[in-house]
Design brief:
Oligomer: single chain
Largest sheet: 8 strands, mixed
Shape: globular
Structural class: alpha/beta
Helix content: 25-40%
Number of helices: 10
Number of strands: 8
Length: about 260
Amino acid sequence: MNTVISKDGTKIVYDKVGNGPSLILIGGAFSYRKFPGMVKLAKLLSDQFTVYTYDRRGRGDSGDSEEYEPAREYEDLDAIISKAGGTAFVWGLSSGAVLALQAAAHGASITKLALHEPPFIVNDTDHVPPSDFSKKVSELIADDRSADTIKFFMTKGMGAPSIIVTMMRMMPGVWSNLMAVAHTLPYDAALLDGYMEGKSLPKDLWNNVTIPTLVLKGTESPLVLRDGADALVKVLPNAELISKKGLGHTKQLSSELVSFFSAV
């Protein structure tokens, strides 16, 4: 376990494994550096890269601040990049992809960027969360209703059937891990605020993100995620799309990342 201090004084904990160019992995909602999928992906990539995984603020062993702003998470990533040598490749999953993209737009020293199914909702025919989604998530956490927050986030936000949440509650190991990070769901909601309304992505918002960017989606993934990936690649100046079976939210994608990040 390693630590770095972010710009606002918050302690961010990270792990480091492997050899080669620096590659930072950023998980989405509910994820943390010891999440099994994150550990497995880091191990798969460690032969070619020095892989950094970290606990986003408020999760795992990292610290937190009294008030949250997405900009603090950009600064957290900057601090990890500094520890990684000043520049790095970055992969982000779901809300972690949005975090990585926004950090790049705010000047983070990212040399190549891989965005795995960022949950942008761009069509009003897809599942669209309530207009007060972010506010409601924060209110539920403020009322100490973590279980209700998880259910609301997954069903109203992600569009998952209620039965999925019920099944998770019957799996002690799974549910306890979700409950441990539920208080950070308002952070993910804030990162996504304004991009889940069933509207087209702004055409010029990320014009300054000119680094090589890979957008990934699984053909087996929900239509809403596939639509979001398609829309994103169209508004980024230097992006390519990989769409294939086996690249869904919970799948391993080491070969695609190795090919992309290793290419000259």
